[in-house]
Amino acid sequence: MTTESANCFVLAEMRTHHFTFQGTGEDREAARRALLHAWQAHRNRLVQRYPECRDRILDEKHIESRFRISYQEMGADACYPAISPDTGARP
After folding, report:
1. Burial of 58 (0-12, 13-18, 19+ CB in 10 A)
2. Which has the closest alpha carbon to 71: 47, 18, 45, 35?
3. Is residue 47 within 8 Å of residue 10, measured between CB atoms?
4. Three-class SS of 18-60
5. Cβ contacts of 79 within 8 Å, gap of 6 or more
6. How far is CA 21 from the centre of its chain?
7. DSSP structure class, residue 66
8. If you ran DSSP here, which 8-state letter would residue 65 be given?
9. How confident is the model at residue 14, as a pLDDT?
10. For residues 23 and 29, what is the distance between their CA atoms, to the nearest angstrom?
11. d(CA 50, CA 44)
């Protein structure tokens, strides 16, 4: 599914055990690439700090074998439901 309107964008999201990664783009593939770029930067920092873990931390080419990426198409000029400050629930 691709987004053809300039007033829309796609949000890609991947939740790992400890973090949530997001990327946006004009279509799913652009959003996926942005998300994977964020994962690659995160992984590079981890490997720099913990070089002994290089082989255990999946790279961006293999991360989807472990974690699922979900996609949402958004209207660029749409508003989002407010979250209640008392309950944290959406109306």
Report:
1. middle
2. 35
3. no
4. CCEEEEEECCHHHHHHHHHHHHHHHHHHHHHHCHHHCCCCCCC
5. none
6. 4
7. T
8. G
9. 96
10. 10
11. 10
Query: Which segments in the chain show pLDDT lower than 50?
Result: 3-5, 81-84, 88, 90-91
What lies within 8 Å, CB to CB, of 75 at 6+ separation is 7, 8
- The C-alpha atoms of residue 24 and residue 76 are separated, in whole angstroms, by 11
Q: What is the Cα Rg of the chain in Å?
A: 16
pLDDT tens-place string over residues 15-36: 998 999 999 999 999 999 999 9
**Taking the model in full, what pTM does it have?**
0.72
Q: How far is CA 41 from the centre of its chain?
A: 13
